[in-house]
Each structure stands twice: as C-alpha cells, then as structure tokens.
Specification:
Shape: rod-shaped
Structural class: mainly alpha
Radius of gyration: 54 Å
Helix content: 55-70%
Number of strands: 0
C-alpha cells in the first residue's frame, strides 16, 4: 500500500467517523427536541385542564354564594315578618284587650226555665203561662 492509499483510507475512515458522529449528534438532538416537544404539549394540556377546573370552580363558587345570599335574604325577611306579627299581636292585645276568663263556666241560661223572668232559654214566654199566644 502506498502512502496515498493509506491517506485515502484514513480520510475515508475519518469521514465515516465524522458522518457517524454527526448522525449520532443529529439523533440525540432530534430525541431531545422530541422530548422537549412532548413536555411542552403535556404542560400545555395540564395548564388547559387546570384552567378549566379553575373556571368551573369559580362558577360553582358564584352559584353557591348566590344561593346562600338568597337564602340569607329570605331568612332575614321571614324573621322580620315574624317579629312584625309578634309586635302587632302584642299591640292589639294592649290596645283592644279581649276578655280572657280565668276559668270556663257553663252558661246558666241554657235549657233551664225561668218563669219569673219570662225566659225559658229558647225564647220569651209572652203570657207567662206556658202558651205562646
């Protein structure tokens, strides 16, 4: 082998090694970029899902707060009405008192005959003799 052939072989080997090295670097770069791309897609997907969850949570919080506020307002209105009713009842009992008996007594005029007074419990006796002439 001549020096020229040896140099050619050395040049071919170096070129082949350089090509193989560049392919390896290229494969590594492509794999790294693919990994970064996948990671970016996963991060974007996670961010979208998290944003969707936050929006849903905000809507639900608003609806719950709105319903709670409505119930509190209704409760306050009912308490006001109850207080007003109690106040009205108290004022009526003080301004226009109704007789409240201490105990219940039977009616003395029911079903009994009182001839001296012309009243028999059902009507008046006009002639006080038992006939209604």
């Amino acid at each position: 082998m001549s020096q020229h052939n040896a140099d050619e072989q050395l040049c071919c080997c170096q070129t082949q090694n350089l090509i193989n090295s560049k392919f390896a670097d290229l494969n590594y770069n492509l794999a790294s970029q693919e990994c970064e791309t996948r990671r970016a897609v996963q991060d974007a997907e996670r961010d979208l899902i998290e944003n969707n969850n936050n929006n849903t949570r905000q809507i639900l919080d608003f609806l719950v707060q709105d319903r709670l506020s409505a119930l509190q307002n209704e409760n306050a209105a009912l308490k006001t009405q109850l207080s007003q009713d109690a106040q009205n009842e108290y004022l009526l009992s003080q301004l226009r008192p109704v007789a409240n008996p201490a105990y219940v007594v039977a009616n003395p005029y029911t079903g009994q005959v009182y001839p001296n007074y012309g009243f028999n419990g059902y009507g008046y006796n006009y002639c006080n003799c038992g006939c209604n002439a």
